[in-house]
Write a structure and sequence with these properties.
Helices cover 39% and strands 14% of the residues. It contains 6 helices and 5 strands; from the N terminus they run βαβαβαβαβαα. The structure holds D-ribose.
Length: 150
Amino acid sequence: MSFVFDSTKPIAIGCDHAGFAYKTALVKWLIEKGYQVKDFGTFSADSVDYPDFAHPTASSVAKGETCFGILLCGTANGVAITANKHPDIRAGLCWQNDVAIVTRQHNNANIICIPARFVALVLAQQMIELFMTTAFEGGRHQTRINKIPC
Ligand code: RB5
């Protein structure tokens, strides 16, 4: 399986305090695997507001400065709701491997949102690998994506 995003650009990552421990581990893991990473914080376990980190992460993906995004918070709902306010962002909440695959195949998601309080770190890693190596299927799914904007 090969990387389906633009490998010349870094991967964007952001989180709140609930995702901080997983983000720290994921940044290290991605760098060890040879990927470039742009880390939008947060940078400690102190309580913060997830939009302050989800917005800049989503902006970087929307502007094409980064190739895809990873967002983490407790449930992943806060970061997903925030990121999906950005035109051209399709942020999908993933909690099992098959969801990560279909979120790429059907939704052409460009941000994976991971509920750090409800999935194991190894599952988060598996989902990220599947997300970044699964191609969009296009066709009827593109027709549906075209109907998303308000
Ligand atoms: C933080 O306690 C929690 O509310 C946040 O991480 C997230 O789950 C919100 O959607």
